Amino acid sequence: MKAIPIPKDEIGKIADVEKSKGLKFLRxxxxxxxxxxxxxYSIMEGxxxxxxxxxxxxxxxxxxxMVAGIGCHGKIYDYININGFNALHGRALPTAFGVKLGNxxxxxxxxxxxxxxxSEGMEHFIHMGRFNPNMTLIVHDNQGFSLTTGQATxxxxxxxxxxxxxxxxxxxxxxxxxxLALMTNIxxxxxxxxxxxxxxxxxxxxxxxxxxxxxxxxxxxxIIFNTAVNGRDENMxxxxxKKRTFDEALKLASEYDYNSKDGKIPIGIIYxxxxxxxxxxxxxxxxxxxxxxxxxxxxxxx
Amino acid sequence: MxxxxxxxxxxxxxxxxxxxxxxxxxxHQGYFTFxxxxxxxxxxxxxxxxxxxxxxxxxxxxxxxxxxxxxMDELTSSLHKSELNKGGIIIESASYEKFGLNLNVALAGxxxxxxxxxxxxxxxxxxxxxxxxxxxxxxxxTAGYDSVQVKYNLSSQKKNITIMTGSKGLAIxxxxxxIDLYTGYPMTPSSALLHELAGMMEKNGHFVFQAENELxxxxxxxxxxxxxxxxxxxxxxxxxxxxxxALSLQGTTELPLVVHxxxxxxxxxxxxxxxxxGDLGLALRAGHxxxxxxxxxxxxxxxxxxxxxxxxxxxxxxxxxxxxxxxKHLLEGEYSYEDAPKKPLVVKVDRKVPGTTGFxxxxxxxxxxxxxxxxxxxxxxxxxxxxxxxxxxxxxxxIKDKNISMYKLHGKKNSKNLIIGWGSTCGAxxxxxxxxxxxxxFLQVIYMKPMSPDIKKIILKAKNIxxxxxxLTGQLGRLLRERFLIAILKQNRILRYDGRSFTPGMLIPELxxxxxx
Lengths: 302, 517
Description:
The structure holds two protein chains of two kinds.
Chain A: E1 2-5, H1 14-21, H2 40-56, E2 64-68, H3 76-79, E3 83-86, H4 92-102, E4 107-113, H5 114-120, H6 122-125, H7 128-131, E5 136-141, H8 177-183, E6 188-193, H9 197-209, E7 214-219, E8 236-238, H10 246-253, E9 265-272, H11 284-292
Parallel strand pairs in A: 2-3, 2-4, 4-5, 5-7, 6-7, 8-9
Antiparallel strand pairs in A: 6-9
Helix pairs in contact in A: 2-9
Chain B: E1 2-11, H1 15-28, E2 32-38, E3 45-55, E4 66-71, H2 74-80, E5 84-92, H3 103-115, H4 120-128, H5 134-146, E6 162-165, H6 166-176, E7 181-184, H7 191-204, E8 207-210, H8 214-226, E9 231-235, H9 237-253, E10 257-263, H10 280-285, E11 293-296, H11 301-318, E12 321-327, H12 328-332, E13 334-337, E14 359-364, H13 378-401, E15 407-411, E16 417-421, H14 425-436, E17 441-445, E18 447-449, H15 454-461, E19 464-469, H16 475-484, E20 493-495, H17 504-514
Parallel strand pairs in B: 1-4, 4-5, 7-8, 7-9, 9-10, 10-12, 11-12, 16-17, 16-19, 19-20
Antiparallel strand pairs in B: 1-3, 2-3, 6-13, 11-18, 15-17
Helix pairs in contact in B: 1-3, 1-4, 3-5, 4-5, 6-7, 6-11, 8-9, 14-17
């Protein structure tokens, strides 16, 4: 556990700091070890911009915290300079939920991979709609395990033949995380294209402002392993931001089956239900912390 | 003066209600009680019984020979008749069946008369109990009272006695430490603490979260600890196994975490509602990699409160894992006391947490460099690992400074016979020494890790060592052998592993066989 002072040249008016530090603002000095050309760079830029935009709107930098899982995506913990917890593989969600229980005033963004979230961490993901903690999950979905050198995840298309663990090739049906999110009652469901960091930043910002659990899936190429599904940009189209019924959202979510390169891939906010009550508004002890704008550490019991 | 009362019947008939009402009345009359609960994993039906022991002196165990059987169904009297002491009596339910749901209350009334107490206190306790219909309950209790003759004529004593279970003790210890968050998932017997703390939530202002599983419970506890909350989580058997991955995460992150391991007989689902001390080895080793931890096993409800508070204090100060080890017998056994737990240590969260102005807080499951980011630099890893182990030194000093009892000695000082035990067997061992007037000293080990070096001296001074454990392989014995190179002879190990706790009735002859004159 380390507490590091915020760099002196990053304290002051945000516009000025942005001007002087440019793309290095909110970044650490750690060398980035993603493969050259990996779309993770652009996801990171989207996330950085979202934080920056929210800071410009008055959110305090010290209140942001990211929780990351383990996999290529998890390295983002080393690169964006905000509070962070690099959790265990599959456990980013419960760890982040705990952070929120420890201080409901923190702005929690969770990063996970598709193997991380849908394989090892599925048991947590499907409960998020129930609990509805006020935090944002961003899944880097490249339809494969990459850091462990190319095995199949629950999202990998059938026929993927490079998995070292499956000599017969991938024979399992992929799941559709967006449909699953709808079925498990998640109130904010969006999808982004990893390469479009401006749009990603915009969606993450909206997700962070959503009062409840927000799920943002980012469709991403892996340029080394599961390359068969790469290059889907032309299939992607932006949906307009409007209120949709569950059935309309389900129809949109079903357009892409994660199994073929055909079919349209809608991106943007697929579903948003503003009537749900967030977890920390359901319980008096947590409500008190929110009212007083503090965490448990500074809470005085009468 | 000591009496054993067995109250038996089907699950759902209100056995605990009878033993609860009677215990409350008895402590009011100045008697110590100990209530043992024996029940299968069944919601309705089956055969459950409690053995309620009353005594004019402090008592912490039960016997399986009975003076009074309160039989709420025919099975109870036929099953337990053979356990009746000479002159013992059976109160049969048959003549009280007209009271329907209040059968149990009528039997409680009859029992009070047999013991020779007036029934005012019982009536007060019935009035205070929200689960009993007042009018009908009082009618049933009075009718029960009038239906039998006084047999024991016990006189009242002036004492201020309270009833406490181990789970209540743990909860008090957590509240005394300023607990903010308890996370858990239902599993017998650890649920007892989940329920206690949930019940105290509103009054104390902490929060209890029932997670989707134990993985979530322990990981969210660590997340909350990072955010600055004082946290505790807990489970039993397989539920604790699921948590072990995150115990290792505690090791790298050094986030304070108190974990309650409520042992139950395994392997696997084992005997869910019975008792065992089979998980000491698990508590000492759970989690991959090497990192410091504290493992402590209280032996009584008051010690549950004290040890829980000590673990909150030490884990917060040394960024360590603290495991408090109990079992079903201790958690659900209803003990009675005149004395209260020690004054608690004040627990403070004294570090920069996320949200601190001017700082970025970072914690990782990878080895961390000074910047909080991942490192694979061998020299940093060596330093970090050495620093982790070095924290034991600070803990030892702190334990000494704060007068924390790492072990206790009971019984006859400097006896050549030394009994060694831990956890919930303490009650039966102490009561055995007193009842059997045994020439033996009892070493109760509380802190298993770190372990007091005094223990070696105490053992070496004794001529004859006898080990008592509620498990198959003698796990404390193994730990002592590993730690001090002291082996306890196989014939001197008294081990019980049928899921039941020791009683003085069975322990005294076993101890006598092994004691030296």
